[in-house]
């Protein structure tokens, strides 16, 4: 908020306004541990006021302008060098290992490797036992090292950039990393700011500067910043510039700044409009001077250089339960091995000295013998248990974590390359910003969506106007529409960049000047639209040198539409500075001095500007939401006009249009002086500045004369109705949370198919806790009495104040769960997050939030999955999201196709990893039962190590990325197939136990067929071990092949190639003379019994699985199986096949 200085044409009665003023917003960054009440009506006020504490000397940063030595004398502030890299050459190894061992599984395998180094417990070779863990750590370390190398390279380029710094009476080039707090720097057009600096002067005589904040928040529209008038002249002689800035300590709030500048004994307040942040680019301004207040890692950009909160997928969390079960199973196996060994040792305690394969004593030392690695019965049991842990260690699959990471990367690659999720209008592809929750996309039950910019285009188009209670909504083309409005200024024709359709009658009124009362009101109306805003007019060239376009840039699409509408009717905003605006009114240039500006805030829900007009009068123009505007109108004098305007607003809202109300009044000398003094005191206050400024605005924005109302159309995005309908058929409950009026929201609800005509609407509009409780309880009872009725719940933000953070949350949740659709109107940003939290805390179902603006960030981060729309309101939502896309309709392929695929693949891959490792462990366990319960193994130690890393890992990764249980078309045409993920059919404890029983059978077949086949023969254990190894690899890969749906050459190469690779590895191991089992594979493979056993193992182990699979799919087929058969036969009938045979979508059990 700025209160600029007077100019030559301003009357003396407002000449006291010689100091810039602004509204400052509080720190939204560091909230500490204070709990935010989602239902609080003043949530935003609370957030703003929390940082409006007094800046005490010990808490403040004191910056002496152009005196870095004195500034850094007491406190050595951070330099401007930045470091985004995590490691150095010396810290990489210890820090990277420390971070990797945060995974409990890695600590487990480290303990196993350490135990194997002890002589008493050594089962495998010391090198072989370390290899799996070392391989996983090495792969992760290489990835981390490469990423950090790129960060180091980027830091080096950034730190060595050059800037102009004032030293020894002139500006000299200096590397960014050497810039210090307190120095004055000069930035020229199109340069990037090297640090956070307070403006001192600009090339514009009024002190205005234009910046682009794309690198900071993603917004491409130009922003205006201002230098204080008191510093403009003094900045011409920087050597004599004497002053200091007392500002708040560094924080993350890029939209707030609170400070004071003392210069020549005067205290000036500084706010967000006086500071430019690192990463911004200077635009349409030749140069700007500023003093550095925050540098390097303390700049707001660097403090915000952290991603969205880390999330873990529901499937990975659920997997921990199965890992615990596997751990318990591992303990049972180890305990069994130790217990049976104890029994055997006790039974044969008198024969241990002479048993050939045991030989407790070593007789080569002395005749009576000496114990050889025997420590007594108790210790032998203890050692046996931990030796079993080492041998069976792969029961917990270490390769699973690496496999999951690789599969997610592959899934993300195909999602980002999906043409169905490419937005041509913004030239943006799908972004996967969080790789660890891909599979959660297949389990969403609740969808929370913003409306403006998410369901709609957020490209506003002026439609209707109500002026003096009269509706002007005739949209027939006028004569001037074809060419559009234009005006000649200094021999150059200026045209608005965007054309607006006009109302012929209203256009005629504006052309008549002030001939009639209706014409006067119309002119006042469009003058207020052109003046009451923060739009920056930018004049751009065209192919014709005599024609230039006026492009209006601003942070609000609504304001842009209103200013373009004013231009279409002859009120062309041409220039805006910190102190005045210039509007061409039907060919006549008129300059208005901006004496004060109260920007929009979420508490007041309106903005106002105080103008010094050419007729020497002072006028206050206000525009805002009707809910806040009608309360500050002069009802006694303009009651009839207000009622007529309300009726028109209701009609506009019912048509789905966004509405604003415009009011004004003249200020006399006394009123202006009182406002000025109050504003002066509030803007320099250090305690509660934002609240005081809101109070000043509220005091002046009273007794307004209603000027009119506007209606803007924000059209639905293409495909939104079809998308919402598909999502609802899929069993996803869609909640729309919007700040619009109830009538507007309901209209959009019908057009988007969120609401239907056969739905009974339950509307909750309550102004007290008691009435809200009564309405919710009545609604709950009415729904319970008629279960077959389709109900839509509509509730406003005022009612939510009494619901959230109250005992009514449970009642609201019950009503909402019974409703087919939920529509929340007039909700504040923190209420959006509160609604998501309400559902998350009461159900185990997955939630997804989607939005496009900064007001959606809290909701996006609260949900299990957050999706940002790359829209017109900047990129704050995208930066806080897990996934980003260009259009709402892309949710359908994202959830119904990729979400379904990701969930099915990941669920199967996890179970398969458990299965393949358990098969191998049980083979080792069966062998213990036939070797006097010792932990010797027939399978070589290298095969044990390579089994889960090389022999069987690659196929699971390939199938996890590429396999598709159903095609895209059938998943899109029949959304109810999405219920597979919601019901948890792809991964469950039931499937886990079924897999374990199958694992026990297959491992027994693999072990016992060769055992009995070769019983009584002279075959050595190494040959049997090679047979068991190859049989296990073949069986688990064929097991995987039985479940592959979509075969391609990569799948063939992965599965059959793994079998070939395993055989080659076994051969290589057996040809190394120094390793056990030399030449064993060649001896056993040349016999017919080897191949007979291999065939018998494959058939016997997989036959029960094949039979059960056939019976289940034939007699009790799942939805996916039915759809797959239909897809294969191409005889799908929606009304007969899917409609009757598919499972109904039902709500899972709630917490």
Automatic annotation (TrEMBL):
<keyword id="KW-0547">Nucleotide-binding</keyword>
<dbReference type="GO" id="GO:0016020">
    <property type="term" value="C:membrane"/>
</dbReference>
<feature type="binding site">
    <location>
        <position position="852"/>
    </location>
    <ligand>
        <name>Mg(2+)</name>
    </ligand>
</feature>
<dbReference type="InterPro" id="IPR023298">
    <property type="entry name" value="ATPase_P-typ_TM_dom_sf"/>
</dbReference>
<feature type="binding site">
    <location>
        <position position="856"/>
    </location>
    <ligand>
        <name>ATP</name>
    </ligand>
</feature>
<feature type="binding site">
    <location>
        <position position="452"/>
    </location>
    <ligand>
        <name>Mg(2+)</name>
    </ligand>
</feature>
<feature type="domain" description="P-type ATPase C-terminal">
    <location>
        <begin position="878"/>
        <end position="1118"/>
    </location>
</feature>
<feature type="binding site">
    <location>
        <position position="452"/>
    </location>
    <ligand>
        <name>ATP</name>
    </ligand>
</feature>
<feature type="binding site">
    <location>
        <position position="832"/>
    </location>
    <ligand>
        <name>ATP</name>
    </ligand>
</feature>
<feature type="active site" description="4-aspartylphosphate intermediate">
    <location>
        <position position="450"/>
    </location>
</feature>
<dbReference type="InterPro" id="IPR006539">
    <property type="entry name" value="P-type_ATPase_IV"/>
</dbReference>
<protein>
    <recommendedName>
        <fullName>Phospholipid-transporting ATPase</fullName>
        <ecNumber>7.6.2.1</ecNumber>
    </recommendedName>
</protein>
<keyword id="KW-1278">Translocase</keyword>
<feature type="transmembrane region" description="Helical">
    <location>
        <begin position="128"/>
        <end position="146"/>
    </location>
</feature>
<dbReference type="GO" id="GO:0140326">
    <property type="term" value="F:ATPase-coupled intramembrane lipid transporter activity"/>
</dbReference>
<dbReference type="InterPro" id="IPR001757">
    <property type="entry name" value="P_typ_ATPase"/>
</dbReference>
<feature type="binding site">
    <location>
        <position position="623"/>
    </location>
    <ligand>
        <name>ATP</name>
    </ligand>
</feature>
<keyword id="KW-0812">Transmembrane</keyword>
<keyword id="KW-0479">Metal-binding</keyword>
<dbReference type="GO" id="GO:0005524">
    <property type="term" value="F:ATP binding"/>
</dbReference>
<feature type="binding site">
    <location>
        <position position="855"/>
    </location>
    <ligand>
        <name>ATP</name>
    </ligand>
</feature>
<feature type="transmembrane region" description="Helical">
    <location>
        <begin position="381"/>
        <end position="402"/>
    </location>
</feature>
<feature type="binding site">
    <location>
        <position position="600"/>
    </location>
    <ligand>
        <name>ATP</name>
    </ligand>
</feature>
<feature type="binding site">
    <location>
        <position position="856"/>
    </location>
    <ligand>
        <name>Mg(2+)</name>
    </ligand>
</feature>
<dbReference type="InterPro" id="IPR023214">
    <property type="entry name" value="HAD_sf"/>
</dbReference>
<dbReference type="InterPro" id="IPR032630">
    <property type="entry name" value="P_typ_ATPase_c"/>
</dbReference>
<dbReference type="Pfam" id="PF16212">
    <property type="entry name" value="PhoLip_ATPase_C"/>
</dbReference>
<keyword id="KW-0472">Membrane</keyword>
<feature type="transmembrane region" description="Helical">
    <location>
        <begin position="321"/>
        <end position="345"/>
    </location>
</feature>
<feature type="binding site">
    <location>
        <position position="740"/>
    </location>
    <ligand>
        <name>ATP</name>
    </ligand>
</feature>
<dbReference type="InterPro" id="IPR023299">
    <property type="entry name" value="ATPase_P-typ_cyto_dom_N"/>
</dbReference>
<feature type="binding site">
    <location>
        <position position="451"/>
    </location>
    <ligand>
        <name>ATP</name>
    </ligand>
</feature>
<keyword id="KW-0067">ATP-binding</keyword>
<feature type="transmembrane region" description="Helical">
    <location>
        <begin position="914"/>
        <end position="936"/>
    </location>
</feature>
<feature type="binding site">
    <location>
        <position position="739"/>
    </location>
    <ligand>
        <name>ATP</name>
    </ligand>
</feature>
<dbReference type="InterPro" id="IPR036412">
    <property type="entry name" value="HAD-like_sf"/>
</dbReference>
<dbReference type="Pfam" id="PF16209">
    <property type="entry name" value="PhoLip_ATPase_N"/>
</dbReference>
<feature type="transmembrane region" description="Helical">
    <location>
        <begin position="1027"/>
        <end position="1047"/>
    </location>
</feature>
<keyword id="KW-1133">Transmembrane helix</keyword>
<feature type="transmembrane region" description="Helical">
    <location>
        <begin position="1059"/>
        <end position="1082"/>
    </location>
</feature>
<feature type="binding site">
    <location>
        <position position="826"/>
    </location>
    <ligand>
        <name>ATP</name>
    </ligand>
</feature>
<feature type="transmembrane region" description="Helical">
    <location>
        <begin position="942"/>
        <end position="962"/>
    </location>
</feature>
């Amino acid at each position: 908020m700025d209160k600029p200085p007077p100019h030559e044409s301003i009357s003396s009665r407002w000449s006291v306004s010689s100091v810039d003023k602004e509204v400052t917003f509080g720190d939204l960054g560091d909230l500490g541990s204070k709990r935010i009440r989602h239902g609080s009506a003043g949530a935003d006020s609370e957030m703003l006021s929390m940082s409006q504490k007094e800046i005490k000397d010990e808490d403040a940063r004191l910056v002496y302008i152009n005196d870095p030595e004195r500034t850094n004398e007491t406190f050595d502030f951070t330099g401007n060098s930045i470091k985004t890299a995590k490691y150095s050459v010396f810290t990489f190894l210890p820090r990277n290992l420390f971070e990797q061992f945060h995974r409990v599984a890695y600590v487990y395998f480290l303990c196993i490797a350490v135990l194997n180094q002890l002589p008493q417990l050594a089962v495998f070779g010391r090198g072989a036992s370390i290899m799996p863990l070392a391989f996983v750590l090495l792969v992760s370390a290489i990835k981390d090292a490469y990423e950090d190398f790129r960060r180091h390279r980027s830091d080096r380029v950034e730190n060595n950039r050059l800037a102009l710094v004032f030293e020894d009476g002139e500006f000299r080039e200096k590397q960014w990393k050497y810039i210090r707090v307190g120095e004055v720097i000069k930035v020229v057009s199109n340069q990037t700011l090297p640090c956070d600096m307070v403006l001192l002067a600009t090339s514009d005589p009024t002190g205005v500067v234009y910046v682009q904040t794309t690198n900071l928040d993603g917004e491409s529209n130009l922003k205006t910043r201002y230098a204080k008038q008191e510093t403009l002249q003094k900045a011409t002689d920087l050597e004599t510039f004497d002053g200091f800035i007392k500002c708040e300590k560094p924080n993350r709030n890029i939209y707030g700044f609170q400070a004071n500048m003392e210069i020549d004994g005067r205290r000036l307040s500084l706010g967000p409009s006086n500071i430019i942040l690192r990463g911004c680019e200077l635009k349409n301004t030749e140069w700007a001077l500023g003093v550095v207040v925050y540098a390097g890692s303390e700049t707001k950009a660097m403090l915000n250089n952290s991603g969205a909160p880390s999330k873990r997928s529901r499937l990975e969390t659920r997997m921990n339960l199965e890992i615990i079960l596997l751990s318990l199973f591992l303990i049972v196996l180890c305990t069994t091995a130790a217990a049976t060994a104890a029994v055997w040792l006790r039974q044969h305690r008198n024969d241990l000295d002479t048993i050939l394969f045991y030989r407790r004593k070593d007789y080569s030392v002395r005749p009576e013998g000496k114990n050889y690695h025997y420590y007594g019965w108790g210790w032998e049991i203890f050692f046996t248990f931990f030796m079993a842990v080492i041998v069976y260690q792969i029961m917990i699959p270490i390769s699973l974590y690496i496999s999951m990471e690789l599969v997610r990367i592959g899934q993300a690659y195909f999602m980002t390359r999906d043409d169905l999720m490419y937005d041509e209008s913004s030239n943006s592809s799908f972004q996967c910003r969080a790789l660890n929750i891909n599979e959660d996309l297949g389990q969403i039950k609740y969808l929370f969506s913003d409306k403006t910019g998410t369901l709609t285009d957020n490209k506003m188009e002026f439609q209707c106007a109500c002026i003096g209670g009269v509706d002007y909504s005739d949209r027939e083309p006028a004569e001037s529409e074809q060419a559009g409005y234009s005006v000649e200024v200094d021999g150059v024709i200026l045209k608005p960049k965007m054309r607006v359709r006009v109302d012929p009658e209203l256009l005629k009124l504006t052309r008549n000047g002030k001939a009639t009362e209706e014409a006067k009101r119309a002119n006042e109306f469009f003058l207020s639209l052109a003046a009451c805003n923060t739009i920056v007019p930018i004049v751009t060239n065209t192919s014709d040198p005599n024609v230039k376009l006026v492009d209006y840039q601003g942070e609000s699409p609504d304001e842009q539409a209103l200013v373009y509408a004013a231009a279409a009717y002859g009120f062309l905003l041409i220039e805006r500075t910190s102190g005045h605006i210039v509007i061409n009114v039907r060919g006549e240039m008129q300059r208005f001095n901006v004496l004060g500006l109260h920007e929009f805030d979420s508490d007041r829900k309106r903005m106002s500007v105080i103008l010094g007009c050419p007729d020497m009068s002072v006028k206050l123009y206000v525009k805002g939401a009707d809910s806040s505007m009608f309360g500050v109108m002069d009802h006694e004098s303009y009651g009839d006009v207000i009622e007529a305007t309300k009726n028109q607003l209701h009609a506009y809202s019912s048509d789905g249009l966004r509405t604003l109300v415009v009011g004004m009044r003249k200020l006399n000398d006394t009123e202006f002086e009182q406002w000025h003094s109050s504003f002066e005191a509030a803007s320099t206050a250090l305690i509660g500045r934002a609240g005081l400024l809101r109070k000043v605005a509220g005091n002046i924005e009273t007794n307004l004369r209603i000027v009119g109302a506007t209606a803007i159309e924000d059209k639905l995005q293409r495909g939104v109705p079809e998308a919402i309908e598909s999502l609802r058929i899929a069993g996803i409950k869609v909640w729309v949370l919007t700040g619009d009026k109830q009538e507007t929201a309901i209209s959009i609800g019908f057009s988007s198919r969120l609401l239907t005509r056969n739905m009974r609407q339950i509307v909750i509009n309550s102004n007290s806790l008691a009435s809200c409780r009564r309405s919710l309880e009545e609604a709950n009872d009415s729904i319970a009495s008629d279960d077959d009725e389709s109900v839509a719940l509509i509730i406003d933000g005022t009612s939510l104040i009494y619901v959230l953070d109250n005992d009514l949350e449970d009642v609201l949740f019950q009503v909402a769960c019974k409703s087919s659709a939920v529509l929340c109107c007039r909700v504040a940003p923190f209420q959006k997050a509160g609604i998501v939290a309400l559902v998350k805390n009461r159900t185990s179902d997955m939630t997804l939030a989607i939005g496009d603006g900064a007001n959606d960030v809290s909701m996006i981060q609260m949900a299990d999955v957050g999706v940002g729309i790359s829209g017109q309101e900047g990129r704050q939502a995208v930066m806080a999201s897990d996934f980003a896309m260009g259009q709402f309709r892309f949710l359908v392929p994202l959830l119904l196709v990729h979400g379904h695929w990701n969930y099915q693949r990941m669920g199967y891959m996890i179970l398969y990893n458990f299965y393949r490792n358990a098969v191998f462990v049980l083979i080792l366990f069966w062998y213990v039962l036939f070797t006097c319960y010792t932990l010797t193994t027939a399978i070589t130690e290298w095969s044990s190590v390579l089994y889960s890393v090389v022999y069987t890992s690659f196929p699971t990764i390939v199938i996890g990325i590429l396999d598709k249980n159903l095609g895209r078309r059938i998943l899109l045409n029949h959304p109810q197939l999405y219920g597979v993920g919601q019901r948890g059919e792809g991964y469950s404890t039931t499937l886990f136990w079924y897999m374990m029983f199958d694992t026990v059978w297959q491992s027994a077949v693999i072990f016992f067929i060769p055992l009995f086949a070769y019983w009584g023969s002279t075959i050595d254990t190494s040959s049997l071990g090679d047979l068991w190894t190859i049989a296990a690899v073949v069986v688990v890969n064929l097991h995987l092949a039985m479940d592959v749906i979509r075969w391609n050459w990569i799948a063939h190469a992965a599965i059959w190639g793994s079998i070939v690779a395993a055989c080659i590895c076994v051969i290589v191991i057996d040809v190394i003379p120094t390793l056990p089992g030399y030449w064993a594979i060649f001896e056993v493979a040349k016999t017919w019994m080897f191949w007979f056993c291999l065939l018998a193992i494959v058939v016997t182990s997989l036959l029960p699985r094949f039979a059960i699979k056939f019976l289940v799919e034939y007699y009790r087929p799942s939805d996916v199986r039915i759809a797959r058969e239909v897809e294969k036969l191409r005889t799908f009938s929606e009304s007969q096949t899917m409609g009757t045979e598919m499972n109904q979508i039902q709500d899972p059990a709630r917490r």
